[in-house]
Design a protein that fits this description.
Elements: H1 3-68, H2 72-94, H3 102-125, H4 131-216, H5 230-269, E1 275-278, E2 284-287, H6 289-294, H7 310-324, E3 337-341, E4 344-356, E5 363-372, H8 374-409, H9 411-414, H10 419-449, E6 457-461, H11 462-480, E7 483-487, H12 492-496, E8 498-502, H13 503-520, E9 526-534, E10 537-543, H14 575-585, E11 589-594, E12 600-607
Parallel strand pairs: 7-9
Antiparallel strand pairs: 1-2, 1-5, 3-4, 4-5, 6-8, 9-10, 10-12, 11-12
Length: 608
């Protein structure tokens, strides 16, 4: 028998039970709906009429009171409106008698209403002096009788609605029990037949699963027995065919794999720079001729820690790539590895790229290319030497020129100076000052690039550091109309905590950040300097009120000679670079985010 037929027969009892439940449920819903409609049609309209009559008789009683106090016009309006409304609802109620005793209640209400009308007419005819007596002796008792009659009609219909609602709820409970019993019978039948069918199907499927495991382990010489079910027998035949083709593909694939390995090795061998392929465990999987010649390593070896040499660098790159699953690309020549070869010392710049499994994304290997940058590094050194030499050569004449301009502006030395001459000399003095600042930046850049920046650490309160920075930029801030604020009260504990830093170097770095903040803030704005205690670090923050730094530029602006897209005024783009290198020399971090004020927040974190 086909599996389709077996499954269909197993589902048939459940389908029949479901069909019966659907038909029975539809009838039950129709019956409950009809009961609800009956309640609404028979009783709800009477309840509504009784409520409205109670409201109308109360308004008529208000009209009687208005007449007693002399407001005849308001009384007449209420009588006209609510007398007609009461008559209308009374007729509706008289035509909607549905409950036992309801007709008698309506008749009593009608009699009470007629009496009320007579009493009200007596009130109208009574002299003003006798009106209160008529109201309390005739109108008020008649009003209460009408109200009680309406309440009696209301109570009859409300009791009927509650009774019918209870009957409908009891019917729903009985229907739910019947439905549950039918569902249990159908479910039990389906489970019994399903269990029998499952046993007949799962046994051959278990054999198929075990055979598939064997195929997955590489055992392709398998054959599945007949299961006695047409579909499973067809699946077994297809599985046998698949195993046969896999055996053929294996034989063909082994040749293809060998050729791919040869091609990959040939591609690696053609590179002039050393290439090393590593496993995540640190084994050297493959190398090219340049790696074997320059580094002296070959495939099959394991990485060794050689105290800062190539082995240490490769181990560090392997750990970084495996942990982050991202390539490691050097930012500058500080990552260079120096290697002694027969041709002399070579400078190799390592680049590491992960080899990831296409299915799982896990790192199965790392390729390290050690780019020979010996000539480029030498050119960079020559460039640094040229910058240093030019800066040194410019420093002395600029100092002399600065002194000469200062003396020329001093009338006690050079005599009276005209207004135009003074303007020219002042402009020249400012230009010389900017050139001198540029020369100092270039000298700092040279010292940083040569690794000659030596830190002289001392313990300095963080708040005192910020106060010094604020004093250094306050003159420029006053000229720009910007207020500099040091928040030592808000973070008093952290601001008073000392940090071990090179005071002059840190002052230079933070002053560069504060000067940038003043320059980019509009007139009337505030520049805030803060010291914040964080876990294991002291954090300095400089907030401005400028346009902020776009996310795409937040890494680039810390490079040498880099300036933001909206940078204005003079400058060589070295301030942020020098600040970054000073912070790095302290073992800290520097970055920029959006400030709460809408500008930029430059932050520096220094370890305790």
């Amino acid at each position: 028998m086909r599996l389709y037929t077996r499954v269909l027969l197993a589902q048939l009892p459940a389908l029949l039970v479901i069909l019966a439940l659907v038909v029975w449920g539809g009838q039950t819903v129709d019956r409950l709906g009809a009961e609800s409609q009956r309640i609404l049609a028979q009783n709800y309209r009477s309840v509504l009429a009784a409520e409205r009559m109670k409201e109308s008789i109360e308004r008529l009683d208000s009209a009687a009171l208005f007449r007693l106090v002399g407001s005849a016009e308001r009384a007449a309006g209420l009588v006209t409106e609510h007398e007609a409304a009461f008559e209308t609802e009374l007729r509706i109620q008289a035509s909607n008698i549905t409950e036992p005793g309801e007709a008698e209640s309506v008749e009593r209400l009608r009699v009470a209403w007629i009496r009320y009308q007579s009493a009200y007419d007596a009130l109208l005819a009574a002299p003003p002096a006798d009106a209160p007596t008529v109201y309390f002796s005739q109108v008020l008792p008649a009003f209460q009788a009408v109200k009680d009659g309406a309440q009696e009609v209301l109570a009859v219909n409300q009791d009927a609605m509650r009774r019918k609602s209870d009957e409908a709820a009891a019917s729903a409970v009985a229907a739910r029990r019947q439905w549950l019993a039918g569902a249990l019978v159908g479910l039990g039948s389906a489970m019994l037949l399903g269990a029998v069918l499952s046993h007949r199907v799962t046994v051959p499927l278990g054999v198929l699963a075990k055979t598939a495991e064997r195929v997955g382990d590489g055992q392709l010489d398998v054959h599945l027995p007949s299961a006695g079910i047409a579909e499973l027998d067809a699946l077994a035949s297809t599985f046998d065919t698949m195993a046969t083709r896999l055996r053929e593909y294996r034989r063909a694939g082994e040749g293809e794999l060998a050729r791919a390995r040869e091609s990959a090795q040939a591609a690696i061998e053609s590179l002039v720079d050393p290439v090393v392929v590593l496993t995540p465990e640190g084994e050297i999987r493959a190398t090219n001729g340049a790696a074997r010649r320059v580094l002296g390593i070959a495939s099959g070896q394991r990485l060794l820690d050689d105290d800062g040499g190539v082995g240490t660098v490769l181990q560090r790159l392997l750990s970084a790539v495996v942990s982050t699953r991202a390539p490691v690309i050097p930012a500058d020549f500080t990552a260079v590895v120096l290697v002694e070869t027969a041709e002399g010392e070579r400078a190799l710049l390592p680049h590491a790229t992960p080899i990831q499994d296409a299915a799982t994304g896990t790192v199965v290997g790392v390729t390290v290319l050690l780019q020979d940058v010996t000539r480029l590094r030498r050119l960079d050194e020559l460039k640094g030497d040229l910058v240093q030499t030019a800066a040194h050569e410019l420093r002395t004449p600029l100092t002399s020129l600065r002194m000469a301009l200062h003396l020329a502006l001093d009338e006690r030395v050079s005599g009276p100076v005209g207004e135009k001459q003074q303007a020219f000399l002042t402009s020249a003095q400012e230009d010389v000052q900017r050139l001198r600042a540029l020369v100092e930046d270039l000298l700092d850049l040279s010292r940083i690039q040569e690794g000659r920046m030596v830190l002289h650490r001392e313990s300095v309160p963080a708040g005192a550091v910020l106060e010094g920075v604020a004093g250094a930029v306050r003159a420029a801030a006053d000229a720009a109309g910007v207020e500099v604020e040091v928040e030592v009260e808000v973070e008093a504990a952290s601001a008073a905590r000392p940090v071990s830093v090179d005071k002059a170097r840190l002052h230079l770095a933070l002053t560069n950040l504060a000067a940038n903040a003043v320059r980019h803030s509009p007139r009337g704005a505030k520049v805030r300097l803060r010291a914040v205690a964080a876990e294991g670090v002291t954090r300095f923050e400089v907030d401005d009120a400028g346009a902020g730094v776009p996310a795409a530029e937040r890494e680039r602006i810390f490079g040498a000679f880099m300036r933001g897209a909206d940078a204005g005024g003079p400058g060589a783009g070295l301030g942020l670079y020098i600040a970054r290198e000073v912070v790095r020399a302290h073992g800290g971090r520097i970055g920029v985010t959006d400030a709460p004020s809408g500008g930029a927040r430059f932050w520096v974190e220094l370890p305790e």
